[in-house]
Amino acid sequence: MSTARPRAGCCGRSRITRVHGHPQETTLGGRPVTLYPIYHPAAALYTPAMLRTLEDGVPVCLTVTLLDGLVLARSAFHHSVNYRSVVVLGTAAPVEDPTAKREALEAIVEHVVPGRSGSVRGPNAKELRATTVLRLPLIEASAKIRSGPPLDDEEDYGLGCWAGEVPLRTIALAPVADPRLASAISPPPSVVGYRRPVARRR
């Protein structure tokens, strides 16, 4: 998707609805503007127009970031966050084979809750047709990690304010049953003992 950053004094409407790839120069209300490609989960993943564009084989950038903690420094300037981030560049291609689509969707479910696919109804033909699965080859990728305490200026280490890290974690709470669930059905072990996958740190 895109956003327009018009220069001062710009007004009017644009017929451009989306842009993909690199920033593009255009006009808005007779004024020069730059369109910047922006990833937005609700729009990019669920808009049919976006999916059709990806199916045509356009270059895409997939970014995943996990926030691990707040880094509180002795100066406001050096405050930061600890995180793990990966960027994948490539050309997305649709997965057309029904068997391959089923396997891909099952892999997603199994990654979230291992064993879940074996106890629920799988997607039917209508649901498969309504679901677009894209394959993104790992041809070019990069990872970036920040960890550890704040990095203050040497002269600030003697300041009398607290500095350090506030670790952040996403944890699973006790399961809450669907109000329409039959009372005789108990949550399976994969639900009761659910734990999010945690990457091992070296």
Please, could you describe this protein's structure?
There is one protein chain. With 202 residues, the chain is of the alpha+beta class. It has a domain at 1-56. The protein has five helices and nine strands, in the order βββααβββααβββα. The strands form three sheets. The protein has a four-stranded antiparallel beta sheet, with no helix packed on it. A three-stranded antiparallel beta sheet has the order 1-3-2, with no helix packed on it. A hairpin with a 7-residue loop joins strand 4 and strand 5. The two termini are 37 Å apart.
Summarize the structure.
With 202 residues, this protein is α+β, with helices and mostly antiparallel strands.
The level of helicity is: 10-25%
Largest sheet: 4 strands, antiparallel
Termini Cα gap: 37 Å
Write down the Rg.
23 Å
Number of strands: 9
* Strand/helix succession: EEEHHEEEHHEEEH
Low-confidence stretches: 1-21, 36-44
**Structural class of the helix and strand makeup?**
alpha+beta
Instruction: Categorize the overall geometry.
Output: flat
**Spatial order of strands in the largest sheet:** 8-5-4-9
> Beta-strand level of the residues, as a percent range?
25-35%
**Arithmetic mean of pLDDT:** 79
Number of helices: 5
